[in-house]
């Protein structure tokens, strides 16, 4: 557990610049509306500037037994999208991959119910051959509050 402490301190000092992409914002708003009808509320959300082939670490505290939905939206021109999620002991608990051309290819969404109340690290990534830098991504963490 102590091995993660330097990582957490480092990750907290990373300052992601927000980005603006109207298409991604519209997708995010649409997804939030659909999930709200299912009883989810937004816990955290952010637009993030990304670089092709580099993960963006997102550290979130999750509560045991709560039902969460994580959403990552990548730039529509990217060819590959991945999200990995790790628990406090650095065990990978989720891996999702989508390719351009898949239905909703630039959106990765999954639900997760943690077995313990602890911090989790989520690492979204996208690969884009045209734009190596200045990619926009959007991350959301939602929590189920109503049946």
Task: Give your account of this protein's structure.
The chain starts with a helix and ends with a strand. A hairpin with a 5-residue loop joins strand 4 and strand 5 (about 90-100). About 20% of the residues lie in helices and about 45% in strands. It is globular. The strands form two sheets. The chain has a four-stranded antiparallel beta sheet with strand order 1-8-3-6, with helices on one face. The relative contact order is 0.30. With about 150 residues, the protein is α+β, with helices and mostly antiparallel strands. It has a single domain, classed as Jelly Rolls (Sandwich), CATH 2.60.120.
The proportion of residues forming helix, as a percent range, comes to: 10-25%
First-to-last CA distance: 35 Å
Q: From the helix content, strand content and strand pairing, which structural class follows?
A: alpha+beta
Oligomer: single chain
Q: Indicate the CATH class.
A: Mainly Beta
Count of helix runs: 2
Succession of helices and strands? HHEEEEEEEE
Return the average pLDDT rounded to an integer: 88
Briefly note the CATH topology name: Jelly Rolls
* Percent strand: 35-45%
Q: Please state how the strands of the largest beta sheet are arranged side by side.
A: 1-8-3-6
Which residues form runs of ≥5 with pLDDT under 50? 1-14
